[in-house]
Amino acid sequence: MTLQFNKIDKAMPQFKLHHVGYLVRDMSAVKEFVERLGYRIESDVIEDPVQTAFVQLIRQPDTTSWLELVMPNGPESKLTKALSKGGGLHHLCYEVNDIVRACDHLRGQAMLTLSNPVPAAAFPGRQIAWFMDRGTFLIELLESGTGYLALASVMKSKGVA
Amino acid sequence: MSTFYRLQSIFRDVFSNPQLVLSADMAISNFAEWDSVAMIHIILVAEAEFGVRFNTDEVAAASSVADILKIIDAHLNEL
Questions:
Q1: Better pLDDT: A82 or A44
Q2: Residue B27 has pLDDT above 60, yes or no
Q3: Could you tell me the domains of chain A?
Q4: Which residue in A27, A90, A149, B22 has a CA-CA distance of 20 to 30 Å to B31?
Q5: CB contact (8 A) between residue A134 and residue B45
């Protein structure tokens, strides 16, 4: 059997995986990812008012995306209910060059806008937006940029164009 | 079928309850199963059913059957 790859629509916005959001009860969980799986801590614990959460970015050496640990920032957090169901995998975040165009694309793909582009607390100078589909698949869009937590920086360090 | 009964069908599908009887005053605050995830499901199915698109402010403000009916009717009147 020969695998048939689908054709990529080149007119479509490009979505590049930036991080996987992982919901935890306590940020001390970072220790488990560091000691068990060799992650490196790559950000401080930052309060994100859009997610009503504290977040921290970690990454394994020689990989090109992050894991974002996400913890509710209080009992009124939007994440408290999700955490009561067990936490774990929470969202996928994609970096995009044109966040407005990417938002339009997702909105036309049966995804509902939970948040229009707003400044990102964890990524200064960049914007984020949130979407969910009817299967509760949660997507965060992050405007591309420069600096330590940008895909362009990681790709450059790996010699990837 | 009226907008109300088409919306009732959507609620019956989303909540897997074929006997569910919709009322205008049914709201997130008085219907335990109706959480934010169910609301997203309702809106996305309603968009497909009625051929309309809710804007972000409308989604944020909607919290009852009456709200949803009002938004759908407003968009249908724009068509």
A1: A44
A2: yes
A3: 16-158 (3.10.180.10)
A4: A90
A5: yes
Taking 70 as the threshold, does the pLDDT of residue A44 lie above it? yes
Considering only A15-24, A62-71, B34-43, which range has the smallest mean pLDDT? B34-43
Q: What residues in B contact A134, CB-CB < 8 Å?
A: 40-41, 44-45
> Cα separations (Å) of B27 from A79, B5, B62, B64?
21, 17, 9, 4
Residue of A nearest to B40 (CA): A134
The predicted pLDDT at position A157 comes to 79
Query: What was the pLDDT predicted at A161?
Result: 55
HEC letters along A3-31: CCCCCCCCCCCCCEEEEEEEECCCHHHHH
User: What domains can you pick out in chain B, each with its CATH number?
Assistant: 3-78 (1.10.1200.10)
Residue B66 or residue A51, greater confidence: B66
Contact residues of B toward A, CB < 8 A: 35-37, 40-41, 43-45, 47-48, 53-54, 56, 59
CB contact (8 A) between residue B40 and residue A132: yes
